[in-house]
Specification:
single chain; about 100 residues; mainly alpha; globular
């Protein structure tokens, strides 16, 4: 995995853009949400709202989907949440 310094250096390279195609990482891909903070916030959200689909949890935060998945896995390993297969209801998406 590249360091932030390596990614910054890679982004600094000028590339001719004749095709209008992205030729480097988008800046938003470098942004990270602190997992410990996200873990607390996801747990609090689930305590307040109850069961929610992954997509509804993800839309509640300004983070990457992989970060929410990592936090949910950590919470499952701690025995604080459980994963269920259920049909989504409109109430699960309430407020979105």
């Amino acid at each position: 995995m590249a360091t932030l310094e390596e990614l910054d250096a890679a982004m600094a390279i000028e590339v001719e853009d004749e095709e209008g195609v992205v030729k480097g990482p988008h800046p938003y891909l470098l942004r990270r949400y602190p997992l410990e903070k996200l873990e607390r916030e996801v747990y609090q959200l689930l305590r307040e709202r109850g069961s929610m689909p992954l997509s509804a949890i993800w839309r509640s935060f300004d983070c990457h989907l992989w970060e929410v998945c990592a936090v949910l896995r950590r919470l499952r390993e701690k025995g604080l949440v459980e994963e269920k297969e259920v049909a989504p209801t409109p109430e699960a998406y309430q407020g979105f």
